[in-house]
Amino acid sequence: MMSSESAIHPFARFRVSLMILRTAIAERLMYRADFAMGTLFRFLPIVTQIFLWGAIFSVGTQSETKSIAGYSYEEMIAYYLLAMLARAFSSMPGLASGIARQVRDGTIKKFLTQPIDLLGYLFWHRVAHKLVYYTVAAGPFALVFFLCRGFLPEWPGGWVFLAFLASLVMGFLMGFLIESLLGLVSFWFLEVSSLLFIYMMFNYFLSGHMIPLDFLPEPILVWIEFIPFKYLAYVPAAILLDRYTGPELIQVLVIEVAWIIGLLILNRVAFSRGVKRYSAFGG
């Protein structure tokens, strides 16, 4: 954080954050129809999943296809629905590339000369985006989940549901911090598109968005425990599908909190050191 910003009174800093949030919400509301249609069409692949896994589970005798990796047919469809919901929280399209573009064209210097924190600004802008998105998309989400209600598990206990909500919020924080950290790499490498492509490829596979992580062999699962991707899609879905026992659930959430704290520190260090070596170009 820049020294000019650290000198701001905490109440004034709160007012700045609130103003950023309100402005970003007003801006995002211009795209409310796009959010609603985009959400509805985003769930169209689930139709493919229903037919695909229906065909897979119908192959062979009933005893052979009763479950795959511990998932029944209904649980498999429920997993994809919940994973898509989790990904809607944790995905941050354009965040890393936007930071890299500002570094490259010099527009990032406005955050270095004004008492506005870059990461704070981007965070509240993303909060506004998600607030508007879920307000507008509540209808399409409700429709899809109502039509697929036969696949969904029974309503979980209070603590499990709270853990599920906490995992969604922390998934948003983790997704933001990972993408912002990738964007801050542009202080050292102006072109990060290849890095972002590699990240998106691994993210899609290792987050559990493509297939449940339970399908992967044990050696890969061991390594997945040491990287944060699974918290972006797999963990929220697994919590609601009761894949974690009580102690395991607490451990997973504690580790996720530790990841968030570690990523926040890395973001602050990367920004501080990046600014020191930065030379402004362009507008």
Automatic annotation (TrEMBL):
Coiled-coil region(s): none
Keyword field contains Transmembrane helix: yes
Pfam annotation, one family: ABC2_membrane_6
Assigned keywords, A-Z: Membrane, Transmembrane, Transmembrane helix
Keyword Repeat belongs to the record: no
Transmembrane residue ranges: 35-57, 77-100, 131-152, 158-178, 185-206, 249-271
Listed name of the protein: ABC-2 type transporter
